[in-house]
Specification:
The protein is built from 14 helices and no strands. The radius of gyration is 20 Å and the shape is globular. The protein has helices spanning about 20-45, 50-60, 65-100, 110-125, 130-150, 160-185, 185-195, 205-225, 225-230, 235-240, 245-270, 275-285, 290-315, 325-345. It is an all-alpha fold and about 350 residues long. Helix 3 packs across helix 12 and helix 4 runs parallel beside helix 6. The longest helix has about 35 residues, at about 65-100. The two termini are about 20 Å apart.
Length: about 350
């Protein structure tokens, strides 16, 4: 996906009137309430049907069948869904501001491709078989590709177009490598087939502990960059006039997006469209100010991810459809709608 040649109309991010701030604040509280309800549903609903009494018994008992299902499986995947959803939403918001492309997503800079290529390499050439091993390879693969994109995009002279072109080229090369290795190695194909669709079903306390520090650092960095990214999104000349440090802001934004998306992809595989849809839709309500887009994206992205996960558990009982497939089914039509609406607006 290349950068849109006609940037969307941007409003100044001056302080909003008190009434508008109040509406945004109430909306954010409502979004948090929805997230809590969805999190409860994620714990209560699964591929295996349990009554409310059985779910409560599982939550508050130290052991037993219900505790194994509710705590070890559903609670862990719900927590991971909250963390990964927030990370994908924030990384999407950062990349859309960095590339000045409202239809950008974390895959634009090759981060997903880097993680996937690293995992297939770990399986094929290093004999890694456990999820805890995948996590580290996937994260460092994403980080390496993020650094390479920044270097090829011009480093200090990086521009949105150069970054997007570098990311697209590297993604194509890495996905070619990935497919070649998987075709030649049946074992890699069997193990990668599950991971590449994106899933929360393999969530464990260990996985959460491994990725949590990276997600916390990436989240804090993204929120710190909200104000300077507002200036960058207005264009280089305007950003310089406002006193923004373009190179430093772009480098830190790349770092934040890579850490967030890399850790999320490492934990559960590449999950598409969440980082694209939610920040884009949120912008229509909050306006272009990232100080509001980011909190909304961090709350509503987990809502989309957990709802998709619950739907995947229910539609194919007693089996389940992986969350990455559900988000792709939802995201495809929504993405087409957004692109068509954008083209219509430009005519």
């Amino acid at each position: 996906m290349l950068v849109d040649s006609v940037p969307e109309q941007r409003a100044e991010t001056a302080p909003a009137p008190p009434r508008r701030r109040a509406i945004r604040s109430v909306g954010l509280l409502a979004a948090v309430a929805v997230l809590l309800l969805v999190a409860v549903a994620s714990i209560a609903v699964g591929a295996k049907e349990l009554s409310v009494a059985q779910v409560l018994h599982g939550l508050f008992q130290d052991s037993g069948t219900y505790a194994d299902v509710v705590v070890d499986e559903r609670l862990s995947r719900t927590v991971l869904g909250l963390l990964v959803g927030a990370a994908l939403g924030l990384s999407g918001a950062v990349l859309q501001a960095l590339t000045r492309n409202p239809l950008a997503d974390p895959g634009l800079l090759g981060i997903n491709a880097g993680a996937s290529a690293a995992v297939v390499t770990a399986i094929t050439y290093f004999g890694v078989t456990s999820l805890t091993g995948y996590v580290w390879f996937a994260f460092f693969g994403a980080a390496a590709v993020g650094a390479l994109v920044w270097f090829l995009g011009g480093s200090r002279g990086a521009t949105p177009v150069r970054l997007a072109l570098a990311g697209t080229a590297i993604s194509a090369a890495l996905y070619g490598y990935l497919q070649a290795v998987m075709i030649m190695d049946d074992a890699a194909l069997a193990r990668m087939r599950f991971w590449t669709v994106g899933s929360l079903s393999t969530a464990t306390d260990g996985t959460i502990r491994q990725v949590l520090p990276f997600l916390v650092v990436g989240t804090l960095l993204a929120f710190v960059l909200a104000r300077p990214l507002n200036a960058v999104a207005m264009g280089d000349d305007t950003a310089k006039a406002l006193g923004a440090h373009l190179n430093r802001t772009r480098a830190l934004a790349m770092l934040a997006a890579t850490v967030l998306c890399g850790a999320a992809t490492a934990a559960c595989g590449p999950i598409v469209f969440v980082g694209l849809m939610v920040p884009h839709i949120v912008r229509s309500f909050t306006g272009p100010d990232l100080r509001w887009i980011m909190p909304y994206a961090a709350v509503l992205s987990p809502v989309l991810l957990l709802v998709s996960d619950v739907v995947g558990r229910v539609v194919a009982r007693p089996s389940e459809v992986q969350v990455g497939i559900i988000t792709a089914i939802i995201g495809g039509p929504v993405f087409i709608f957004l692109v068509r609406r954008r083209r219509t607006a430009q005519l």
